[in-house]
Structures are given as structure tokens and as C-alpha cells.
Here is the input.
Amino acid sequence: MSTILGLLLLVLAIAVLVYWVKSLIIMKNETLFLILGILFSPIIQALYFFTKRDLMDDEQATTMKRFLLVCIAYIVVLVLFMFSAAAQMPVQ
Here is the structure.
């Protein structure tokens, strides 16, 4: 079970990086959001999405939604992986 979760974590980590770069490209016109997005991701991307989603086209909004969903999925799988790995450790 740990192996499957580990592989899923690897795939999700790559997806998070890809969508992180795409979200930064979307925010390129807003210098403050761009700088903060690099430093404090994904909180700033979520803030940017919820404040500027009316100004985004459908493709940009979809990319930001996918980034946020992949981040949430990554956190959930990471927690499951940690519990799975802890359950397999021998008790001393």
C-alpha cells in the first residue's frame, strides 16, 4: 500500500509543479501576486483566483482550479502515506 501511495505522491508532485508554473504564468501581469505566489504558494494562488476569477478567461480559470485541486489531493495522499508508513514500522 505504501508503494502505491508513494508512486501516487510522485505523480501528484509533478502535477503540482506543472500547475504551479502555469499559475505563475497566469499571474505574470500582477507583480505583487507573482512575487508572493513564488514565496507563499498555494495560498496566494487561491487568493488571486478568488479575487480575479471574473477577469480570467475559461482556460486560465480551469488551470487555477486544477492547481488548487491537485494541491489538495497532494496533501490528502501525503497524510495517507504518512499513516501507512507509520503503521508498517515495527514496534519496539
